[in-house]
Design goal:
Strand content of chain A: 25-35%
Number of strands of chain A: 10
Helix content of chain A: 10-25%
Largest sheet of chain A: 6 strands, mixed
Oligomer: homotetramer
Largest interface: A-B, 40 and 40 residues
Strand order of the largest sheet of chain A: 4-1-5-6-7-8
Shape of chain A: globular
Order of helices and strands of chain A: EEEHEHEHEHEEEE
């Protein structure tokens, strides 16, 4: 491992962390799954996981985005992976673009990590690699691609992320 | 998706693709799992998967490495993900370093993709992102890290990949 | 296989078949998973699966129970496995107790079958065995046990099924 | 739970418990998975798990079968589930038929329990139910069916268990 290689994971909620509560007959954001994913991925680098909130991204407010921005601004890490709900991931990514000298990668999942078939593990893998290889800036790793913040949107009808420059 | 974003997957075998044959009471390299991994990861970019061989990497020969080198040399893609056994992955990576103008990422798994708990999915996710973000060159994506070819080895005792510059 | 060994599966919905709809940010009963479970269990006996309804068991009505009772009454199979939501499984089981000459086993799951960790597979396995070994009557197979209808309840606080005769 | 409902699990090895050792590039019987299966199945009855041996069933000897017979003979439980390799499961079942007053169910798996797709969980579910519902005797729960010992064989060509009385 290169000296200094450290990734800070900030978890905010989203579908990736949703679990089913049988007694409520409903589906809520639970404890973050990112640590299990990193363990299963046999990840051997220094990292820390901080749970900032447990929200569906339709409920993430501008105030939440300010808290996230402030956290990173006052923190000393240079590489971040942020797990976030998919619906407003592009919006949150946009608000972080002015943070300099850091590689920030947002990811999440269209199916909860606790499901047998899920994109969660693949996406976190993408984000962890991007945090190490991409030049400072803000990115979204979803749908098998790495997008730059500001040039990506979620296509809700087709349930995928795509470049805004796409025909 | 940026125009031109295309990844060619070359599969060579390795633990990632091992399956259990009950009638033989043994474990052999089977059909590549990479397509299932990409489907489960909801990957939405252009790609092609080519199975070059189905070998345990302890059985990969210099001739096999020449075939792999030649395949890439004569091919037109610019981004490659090669799934490979872990034991000689660093050696194979070394032989590809002279290929210019291409981003080549080798990955595999320490546990077969068909297992319930496996690093396979995370690793392929890392490789797919690296193929898109890293500058042309040869890389290994294992143990949660992206290494440059020539600066990485497999630590067999600890069952992980590490930088050669590491104490 | 003993001549005549045939099991008819009747699916009614319940947690076992719940899936997550990302666009609705909610969890609904989807297509029955029982066929996938039987395939994965390498089940090699004659069976048929009939989907009678797709309801959360809190929404199962007396009219629904009458339809289920009538279906079995007019049908010719001798062994039934009914997948059902857990909340009112004991109530539905009670209404079938007068059906003679048939072994009827109700089961379901406290966690959806599509989850990585789920009791669904184990429970269907229990039910398939019970349908073959128990004498004619109505049973519930949940929480690792086989209960007789009328002598079992769901303990919601502890999220498990238990005998009514229990202290 | 009916007073007295207790199941003793005896594990002997077999495919159900095979794991892959990357450093050996081979597949060996590991620690028994039955406890994980029971936990995932949300099993809520009294049980105990005893590991008698860790053998591929082609290596189970007559001496091993004598030890197994003796263990049960001197033990006080009335219901047993024995996990065992599939190749000689019928032979082992035969040697236990003279043990009176006990319900003994042998099961195993054609694919290891640690695999993502496996019959292991379904089979243990079948065995746990059979141990509770079948009258004293020796049974095999495989391929979705419950067979009586002495009337079943493993069809190696088709990789399934079948009744010996079958045409």
């Amino acid at each position: 491992m290169l000296c200094g290689m450290f990734i800070k994971f900030l978890t905010t909620g989203g579908t990736i962390d949703k679990i089913y509560f049988d007694d409520l007959s409903q589906f809520e954001v639970g404890e973050s799954q990112v640590q299990h994913i990193l363990a299963e991925g046999l990840v051997d680098l220094d990292f820390e996981v901080v749970a900032l909130m447990h929200k569906d991204s339709l409920e993430v407010t501008d105030e939440d985005r300010r808290r996230l921005h402030e956290y990173i601004e006052q923190d000393h890490a240079r590489r971040y992976v942020i797990t976030h709900g998919t619906d407003t991931m592009p919006e949150t990514a946009e608000t972080l673009r002015d943070l300099e000298g850091r590689t920030i990668v947002l990811t999440g999942a269209l199916t909860p990590a606790r499901f047998r078939q899920t994109d969660a593990v693949f996406n976190v893998g993408m984000a962890v690699a991007t945090a190490q290889t991409a030049s400072p800036g803000v990115y979204i790793a979803m749908s098998g691609q790495v997008f730059e913040a500001g040039a990506v949107r979620k296509n809700r009808a087709e349930n995928r992320f795509e470049s805004i420059d796409r025909n």
